[in-house]
Design a protein that fits this description.
single chain; alpha/beta; Rossmann fold; Jelly Rolls; 12-stranded mixed β-sheet; 7-stranded mixed β-sheet; globular
Length: 478
Amino acid sequence: MRTYQSVITFLLVFLIMTDLGAQNSVELNKIAASQGAASQLLFSVDLAKEELIAPGDFKRDDECVVRGGMPNFFAKVSKGQDVTVAFIGGSLTQANYCYRMQISAYLQARYPSTRFKWVNAGVSGTGTDLGSFRIREQVLSHNPDLVIIDFAVNGAYAAGMEGMVRQIIQHDQHTDICLIYAILAAQTKAYNNGKIPPHIEALEALADHYSIPTIHLGMEIARLESQDKLLWKGEVDSAGDRILFSTDGIHPLKAGGDLYAAAIARGIEKMKGHSQMEIHPLPQPLLSDEWDIAGMYIPTDLADFDVKWTAFPTEGSKLRAFNGWFDSLMVADEKGARFSFTFEGDLFGLFDIGGPEVGQLEVWVDGHQIGLHKSQSGGFQPYQMAAENHDNILLNRFNAYCNNRYRGQYDVIKVPKGKHEVSFRISPLRADKKMILGPSQQEDIDRHPAKYDSSKIYLGRILLRGKPILKTTGKEKG
């Protein structure tokens, strides 16, 4: 059994790494640049204001693979019971009309006797690693009946996806799960050749293992493009009679989102035959169970802060756009400002807000300042610990996407598995922000240098893969 799982793991990693090449640097930069403000987690649908999509007549047998289906969702809607549907993903999920509002309106109209609660846990420019950290707070706290997961264009890190799936089942074995696969431009060729993009094949292996239904959103789009009835990327003037899918090659306009939503609607209709309540089993992990214990924590629930830090409510503030994620932030702007916590595990990190004024952090683990170097493993990019004399000893919260704007962002650091005392301190060293912004982004920093001349930190959540430990008692925090 171990040999079999080792082979499967190798194949999954190979498939993912092979397809990362399909995400060219331009597409990856657009995904990263899309990281911005939060959306409110709960949203509503007003059918009087929505134009309802139709499933359409496109047919391809493998567009939706039913497997175990969504029996508990259909059992509830068939009886007119209340249902909570949660969407978790990246920018396509977060945006209103890439598909989320259209399919929500479709379901609300399709099942008028059901009172729906809708959850939008989309975070632009992020993948399944952050998804595993945040799913407990942003999704499972609402006790969803159905979770729709979409990370296919954001790296599709399979181990993180498995972590989300396992956390959902552990929370409630009656919660249905559906994976949906949006696409990037190069992947239409695979569909038109009767194939599945490699990174999606890796996710399909997970879906098989957990008997989860999946829906490919790009098959009809690929066919329309091949028939010259759809322009994948362009401007209205160049589209002519064709459907203009997007202007950036990633994020669909409403017409493109309607096609995505129609594919979801077809898949849901295909699954509706089975409506008896069922328990979803939790098998042994296919890749790993290490993401089962990923979570994010309100900083003051976990860490000790010195007097240089203050609580900063986001509502009504200049950072009110992030209130959907963070009611309050811990904020400091003095060199040496410190916070610390203890945990048992192998990953820790920050989910914070970047902007013109943010600075750099020293990272201390078990009493020693550590160096940091980026690594990559199948779409997951943690920092690894390095010696204190490493070239990079600071965690810079400022980057090229902080030019005159605020953005949600995160980073994680891998340490040997075990118990660790972690401290972050604001560095007295200022980053060379002009160099980081690059020659094409000098206007704002030249006009408003004081805005950038700061080392402020806006801490929203602490990320852990492991168990937090209360320093005062030495006991694990549940």
